[in-house]
């Protein structure tokens, strides 16, 4: 990694921390005064818009040309920033900021740069709508009052930052390995988590928005402060119509997509060849999302145009990746997109009997409901492990649950382990993990000089860890991939509802029994370095002293949202925790920056040889309960019931 001097790093910070509403307001005034070229006269820049993508590509090409002409990194970045500042006032500021961030993100491994958090960069855009409504007596335009029960989740600042930054990393300018497939997988996982959250809170199941001739039944008003950003309109009322010409186009494209699916246009040559399936999904999803893997079809960028058609109803938040999640319609539109993926995947045959079973064994039985239950999947809250240190996890597991205790079971209760210093310490196992809400405060000064103070709530959970007892039955030393998933138990036969929690490599000696330890903070899903508290972000620039910093690494699921809400009733909500062991499918280890599952590794092959979401990338075959039966029948799979209780 190349270091740049602190003055230049501070300049980058200040550029992104600048008060953007002023720039947007000035640009609008120039448009009104006819001082902006017609092709640059954008009212709301959106990277979902094909024409805006092309404008961004031109700006990024200018940056790359300037960068390549300089003798060293510091001079190159300085000149790129000069070019950025020279363009301010002549092109839309959000177009320029987007282009600069995409450029810097692509060069991030070459540079030691920290960008400010979304709390600093776009403070108006992270304000909770409900708090705004209460403070300013605003009548929220929502289709159903119960939808506001999910505001805490949809409007979570770091969740929206994740989505915004994902679309920076997976952009249309720099080709990423398996980008189309990643678009499908990451958004399907977001949907699975969102629907589990709705289920726990007690809201009706989500329905897709697939026909734009039907008025948008649910409205969304983000509150007055988000409008101070000069980026959005006044909100969308209930039952707002989409322009007829847009609705006609969307319907025409949808029918064309469905026709091409039914004709087999995107089918892999061999439905059981993983490489062929990956390539086929990458092509189909890349076409829907408009990534380089896609083909040129009339409906290329169908997903992005849908965002734009909906956002055109009064410049809504749907046009901007870092705010789109706030609106209920985002999830309804993406459920429709996922339905198209499922329609294509239904042409693939269900998973056959698993043939590439590694030589491993995880023991299990069947509980009273006929679902698998494994005593080899042990869960602990880390605050209930005496003298817990993450680096001692494997030793703790082997002492507490392995060796001569291998055949013992450990239901919820108190046990002991021998620490490295020889002392006996306490450890408790659990069948219930707790979630809860916390409150954080943010302050900022608006572009009009007014001080704002807001409280917002966010979901959090007790830190926890897994201990997995695994037997290597091979006479050879082996390396395996451990894959962990959860799902509301009532949905366990729906492959679309399973939530990926982690995947990682383990090394095992020949003919060995090993207790595998894994902490929640190590999850391949969450952003690294882990931010335990959303309120922990740099409010001011500090000189770069470390190669890794939470503010430099923004790609990945927020740690505090790793667990779903669960239920606040009774014992909580019953989930099924499932583990599957496959061969050494992961190429490399978990990166220290970002998320292996959702972000891959920069400028390298996606580090999993199997289709994303495997084995839930397609339905299972056979019987009334094919998924549960497969878990029962195969030695490399196991599951248990886990309750998630909101307290």
UniProtKB/TrEMBL annotation:
<feature type="domain" description="Hemocyanin middle">
    <location>
        <begin position="145"/>
        <end position="341"/>
    </location>
</feature>
<dbReference type="InterPro" id="IPR037020">
    <property type="entry name" value="Hemocyanin_C_sf"/>
</dbReference>
<dbReference type="InterPro" id="IPR000896">
    <property type="entry name" value="Hemocyanin/hexamerin_mid_dom"/>
</dbReference>
<dbReference type="Pfam" id="PF00372">
    <property type="entry name" value="Hemocyanin_M"/>
</dbReference>
<keyword id="KW-0479">Metal-binding</keyword>
<feature type="domain" description="Hemocyanin C-terminal">
    <location>
        <begin position="454"/>
        <end position="623"/>
    </location>
</feature>
<dbReference type="InterPro" id="IPR014756">
    <property type="entry name" value="Ig_E-set"/>
</dbReference>
<dbReference type="GO" id="GO:0046872">
    <property type="term" value="F:metal ion binding"/>
</dbReference>
<dbReference type="InterPro" id="IPR005203">
    <property type="entry name" value="Hemocyanin_C"/>
</dbReference>
<dbReference type="InterPro" id="IPR008922">
    <property type="entry name" value="Di-copper_centre_dom_sf"/>
</dbReference>
<dbReference type="InterPro" id="IPR013788">
    <property type="entry name" value="Hemocyanin/hexamerin"/>
</dbReference>
<protein>
    <submittedName>
        <fullName>Hemocyanin, copper containing domain</fullName>
    </submittedName>
</protein>
<dbReference type="Pfam" id="PF03723">
    <property type="entry name" value="Hemocyanin_C"/>
</dbReference>
């Amino acid at each position: 990694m190349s270091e740049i001097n602190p003055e230049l790093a501070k300049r980058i910070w200040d550029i992104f921390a600048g008060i953007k509403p002023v720039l947007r307001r000035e640009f609008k005034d120039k448009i009104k005064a006819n001082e902006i070229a017609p092709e640059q006269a954008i009212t709301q820049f959106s990277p979902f818009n094909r024409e805006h993508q092309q404008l961004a590509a031109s700006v990024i090409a200018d940056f790359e040309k300037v960068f390549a002409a300089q003798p060293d990194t510091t001079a190159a970045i300085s000149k790129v920033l000069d070019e950025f500042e020279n363009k301010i006032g002549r092109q839309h500021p959000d177009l320029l900021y987007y282009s600069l961030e995409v450029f810097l993100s692509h060069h991030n491994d070459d540079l030691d740069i920290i960008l400010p958090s979304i709390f600093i960069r776009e403070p108006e855009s992270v304000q909770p709508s409900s708090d705004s409504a209460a403070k300013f007596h605003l009548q929220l335009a929502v289709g159903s009052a119960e939808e506001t029960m999910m505001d805490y989740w949809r409007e979570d600042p770091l969740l929206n930052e994740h989505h915004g930054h994902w679309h920076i990393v997976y952009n249309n300018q720099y080709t990423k390995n398996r980008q189309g497939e990643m678009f499908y997988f990451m958004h399907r996982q977001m949907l699975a988590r969102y629907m589990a959250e709705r289920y726990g809170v007690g809201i009706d199941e989500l329905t897709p928005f697939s026909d734009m001739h039907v008025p948008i039944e649910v409205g969304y008003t983000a509150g007055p402060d988000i409008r101070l950003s000069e980026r959005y309109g006044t909100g969308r009322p209930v039952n707002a119509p989409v322009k007829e010409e847009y609705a006609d186009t969307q319907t025409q494209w949808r029918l064309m997509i469905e026709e091409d699916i039914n004709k087999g246009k995107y089918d892999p040559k061999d439905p059981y060849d993983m490489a062929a399936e990956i390539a086929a999904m990458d092509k189909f999803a890349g076409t829907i999302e408009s990534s380089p893997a896609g083909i040129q079809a009339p409906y290329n960028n169908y997903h992005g145009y849908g965002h734009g058609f909906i956002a055109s109803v009064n410049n809504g938040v749907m046009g901007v990746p870092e705010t789109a999640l706030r609106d209920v319609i985002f999830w309804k539109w993406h459920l429709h997109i996922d339905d198209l993926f499922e329609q294509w995947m239904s042409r693939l045959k269900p998973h056959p009997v698993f043939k590439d079973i590694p030589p491993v064994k995880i023991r299990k039985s069947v509980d009273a409901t006929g679902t698998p239950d494994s005593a080899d999947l042990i869960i602990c809250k880390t605050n209930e492990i005496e003298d817990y240190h993450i680096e001692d996890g494997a030793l703790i597991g082997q002492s507490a649950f392995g060796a001569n205790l291998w055949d013992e079971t450990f239901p919820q209760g108190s046990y002991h382990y021998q620490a490295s210093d020889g002392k006996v310490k306490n450890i408790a196992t659990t069948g219930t993990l707790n979630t809860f809400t916390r409150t954080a405060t943010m302050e900022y000064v608006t572009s009009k000089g007014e001080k704002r103070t807001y409280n917002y709530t966010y979901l959090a959970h007790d830190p926890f860890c897994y201990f997995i007892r695994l037997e290597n039955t091979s006479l050879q030393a082996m390396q395996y991939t451990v894959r962990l998933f959860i799902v509301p138990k009532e949905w366990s036969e729906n492959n679309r509802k399973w939530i990926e929690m982690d995947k990682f490599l383990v090394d095992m000696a020949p003919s060995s029994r090993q207790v595998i330890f894994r902490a929640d903070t190590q999850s391949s899903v969450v952003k690294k370095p882990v931010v335990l508290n959303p309120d922990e972000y740099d409010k001011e620039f500090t000189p770069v002293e470390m190669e890794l910093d939470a503010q430099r690494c923004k790609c990945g699921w927020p740690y505090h949202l790793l667990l779903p809400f669960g239920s606040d009733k009774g014992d909580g909500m019953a989930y099924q925790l499932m583990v599957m062991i496959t061969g050494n499918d992961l190429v490399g280890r978990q990166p220290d920056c970002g998320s292996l599952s959702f972000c891959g590794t920069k400028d390298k092959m996606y580090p999993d040889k199997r289709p994303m979401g495997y084995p839930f990338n397609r339905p299972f075959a056979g019987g009334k309960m094919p998924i549960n039966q497969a878990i029962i029948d195969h030695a490399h799979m196991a599951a248990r019931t886990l309750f998630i209780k909101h307290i």
